[in-house]
Amino acid sequence: MRLHRLDLTAFGPFGGTQTVDFDTLSHAGLFLLHGPTGAGKTSVLDAVCYALYGSVPGARQSGQGLTLRSDHAAAGTRTEVRLELTVAGRRLEITRQPPWERPKKRGSGTTLDKAQTWLREHDPRAGTWKDLSRSHQEIGEEITQLLGMSREQFCQVVLLPQGDFARFLRADAEARGRLLGRLFDTHRFAEVEKRLAERRRTTEAHVRDGDAALLADAHRMQQAAGDAMELPSLAPGEPGLAEAVLGAAAVARSTAREELTVARCRLKAAEDAQAGADRALAGIREVARLQRRFAEAQERARALRSRADAQREAQARMERGRKAEAVAPALQLRDAADTEHRTAAAARARARELLRDALGADTRLRTAFDDGGAAGFTGAARRAAEELGGLESARRGERRLTELVAERAELDRQERADDDVRTEAESWLTGWEETRTRLQSAIESAQEAAHRADQLAAQREPARQRLAAARLRDQLADDTETAAAHAAQAQERALAAKEHWLDVRERRLSGIAAELAAQLRDGEACAVCGATEHPAPARKDAGHVDREAEARALAATRDAEERLTEAEQRLGTVREALAAATAEAGDLPTDRLAEAADEVERQYALARRDASALHAAHEELRRAEAEHERRTAAQQQAAVRAAARIGHRERLDREQSGLEAELTQARGTATSVAARATQLERQVALLTDAADTARAAEDTARRLKDADARLADAAFRAGFDTPQDAAAALLDDATHRELQRRLDAWQSEESAVRAVLAEADTVAAARRPAADLAAAERAAEAAARRTRDAASARDAAARRCTELDRLSTRAASAVRQLAPLRTEYERVARLAALTAGTSADNERRMRLESYVLAARLEQVAAAATVRLQRMSSGRYTLVHSDDRTGRGRSGLGLHVVDAWTGRERDTATLSGGETFFASLALALGLADVVTDEAGGVRLDTLFIDEGFGSLDDQTLDEVLDVLDSLRERDRSVGIVSHVADLRRRIHAQLEVIKDRTGSVLRQRGH
Length: 1006
Known about the structure:
Elements: E1 2-11, E2 14-21, H1 22-26, E3 30-34, H2 41-53, E4 80-87, E5 90-97, E6 100-103, E7 110-113, E8 116-123, E9 128-133, H3 136-147, H4 151-157, E10 159-160, H5 164-170, H6 173-184, H7 187-225, H8 241-306, H9 308-324, H10 328-359, H11 363-371, H12 374-390, H13 392-430, H14 432-510, H15 512-517, H16 547-585, H17 590-611, H18 614-667, H19 673-717, H20 723-729, H21 733-757, H22 760-767, H23 773-836, H24 848-871, E11 876-881, E12 893-898, E13 903-906, H25 912-933, E14 941-945, H26 953-965, E15 972-976, H27 980-985, E16 988-993, E17 1000-1004
Parallel strand pairs: 3-15, 3-16, 10-14, 14-15
Antiparallel strand pairs: 1-2, 1-4, 4-5, 5-8, 6-7, 8-9, 11-12, 12-13, 16-17
């Protein structure tokens, strides 16, 4: 990386624009950046860092870049840093502008402009600059990738800051580790340590969770085993827990199996005792049952003797009922005949009533009604049916007449519809020519508008460009007037400043005698006349001007001339732009050009709007022509249908006249043939029904008379005086079943009691003492309870064995599954402790990151020793030490070997000057190592900030020789210092001059 040029505007203490030509300074290889304290030497380095990374080192970066702006800058001047450099063979230009709180262009107050960044690359073949990006993020990533260093690395390697490496030299291992970690980006090794620690915690947690689950199963086994199991006194994660749990589970399983065997023996003895008690209880229950059976039979015998009279009465009633059953068929036949006769008579009466209402005044059928016999009704029904058959032809004719009326109505409807079609078609076709002419005219108008729109489209862009040029011309005219006014003011100020300087110079020359007289000493020769006596030296008057006043006036004159040059350049640039804009826009006023452009836009919009109707007009004409064809065809078809309807209507009229004459005769007094047919159908049905009911009534009367005779004969033969007595003795089914049930129950009960009283076992049991059933049941219940208790104990022991087997199997499986995880935990724990420096195997307690940094520190110490030996005339050598300091960790120690004493001592024992050149050698060595680490990016420009005031002349010469030797690698080194002796030793200088109006840069020597 080589810096070429740096431009600062309103940055830090620099109120105006300052330029640093690094190419000129780098010719000598070694250049000096000096100036008074607070003048802004470090701000130059800050500007380089800000241009590359968008921020400055350390605490100076605050307020989002707002604090970078110079307090000496004019309100309208924006802060800007532009750096031109070559890196990785590419010449780049980076321009950055931090956020700027500027005055508002309109009104009062300020507004905040965002930060801006530009990146350009120089094309050596074309000799021009090419824009690459304006994105902060893209530019930052591009620069970081090209340099291969972060901002912190760059500040440590390229901008060697005040005192940082002296502190690094004296720092402890932890502080060195933090700095080296930032420079060499060893956080990935710290991440490895962290990952291992996290993995150790994770696997440890998994092992603890597995042990906790194993202990939970152990507690469940203890609950299942009762007091037969003791838990191990180990916590989750402790060694031996799994083996202790499995051993305790084995003991608990063995004890549970022994208890199960004892419980089974106890259950067998209890079951035998219960079987004997059950047999004894069964015998006692049988004796008690027989005794109850004998007592119940005696009680039932007494109840039978008390119901003997009722039994005899029921037997007699059953006998009379059996005799009456012989008369029951005749009674049923007579009741059925009577019911049938009454039903037939009622039906005959209803039929006659309905027939009377239906016949009305019909004299032809009235004779049959008056006769009232079945034969008369039958003959009348036959005559009505014959008349009904004759109406079938008339019914067909009536249906045809209805169809003719419907056809005639349909013809009338079609005629009206065709009349409407012809009327509508004629009305529409009357205006067809006018419609077609109108649509064709609309198409032609739209086509003309489309052509006009194409012509106007070609005029739009020139009108817009001319209007934009006119507006730019007006703006540049205002800018020209403003620039001319500024140039005139700058010229006036430059003339006034020059006149003031000439006046001051004239006054100083007038009073130069007094200034020389002030240097005269008695006995010393005068610089003008050579005399050693000075009798009347000139005296300074009240307005005397000295050298400093003249220098200030001269500086003000030069500043005014520079501002005049800038104003004149600005005026020339604006005038050139104004001439170009005027050439493009012409002399017409802007408002007229704007009106002309608006008129073109308006006419173009109207033409586009009219042209957009072209497609719609074509479609409308096409639809109108199709409608014309459709309506013409409809008119012709309607005329053809009208001619065909005339003959059809005449045929329908002739057929209708014949049918109407025929139907008038057929329907008689009825409203229609269908009504007459319905009337006759009802009369036929009613006459037929009346004939049927009359015949049925005559038949049922005869059957009733025969049934009365047969009933009287059957009652006499059964032994009853009258048929009514036989009917009273007859039993219905429910009464008969009830009496029979009572008789059968009495007989059954009598037989059952007699059988029980005759049983030998029952009689023998009745003679024995009363059985004590309660005592036997208590004995059997006690035996059953002892059996249930034994069975419960056996089941509990079996469940205990099963549960212990299940939990033991699960615990053994968990131990097998946990074994690989426990092995992994032990391996990860050993690695984590080893990388963290806490393992006993890590004798020096060195962390992994410290180990890597120690290797880097060895490289830095070796690279620094090459220069340190030259600076110290071969006395000192830097060596890396990995010894432990106190209770801390080892790996990042740094010692110096003194060749004069042959002893190795801590770097904190070096003196101030020795510390400086040792720090410088360390910084240069670190720069070489970090450069190699960053991918071998060459660092052709370095800066060293302060520390040279602590060196004596000899050491300073040696240090400068070392720095001067860097030119062998085509490097340039900038020394930032205010040591006066360095101005004599280093000829290429960049001076920072401090003033009330802000600092300025002055470059001299090469």
